Amino acid sequence: MVGLVLDGGDERALAVLRRLEVAVEATSLGGVETLASVPFNSSHFNLTAQQRLDAGIPPGLLRLSVGLEGEEALVADLRRAIAATA
Asked: How far is C-alpha 74 from the chain's CA centre?
């Protein structure tokens, strides 16, 4: 499991998530493929922004459950998606 906190808050994290091509958007992070989610609109959608902060979930958090894909493909996918939202 990998967590990245992106500048630009939840909106940027969601934009990056939607631009990923190797990682698949999912609300459950279990499987053999790399899955990605942003807590503010999935696992912790029912909490206020302050409650998420209190729980240690900063704005802009993108969570990845790394699967069987090669690391070069995953890193390239993340770099491309992050750059596309800069």
From this structure: 13
pLDDT the model gives residue 47: 87
Helix (H, G, I), strand (E, B) or coil at 61: strand
pTM: predicted TM-score of the whole model, two decimal places: 0.80
Evaluate whether 64 touches 2 at the Cβ level (below 8 Å).
yes
Give the count of beta carbons closer than 10 Å to the beta carbon of residue 48.
9
Within 8 A by CB and 6+ apart from 25, the residues are 17, 18, 35, 36, 37
pLDDT recorded at residue 29: 64
* CA 66 – CA 86 distance, rounded (Å): 23
Tell me the C-alpha distance between 77 and 16, whole Å. Answer: 10
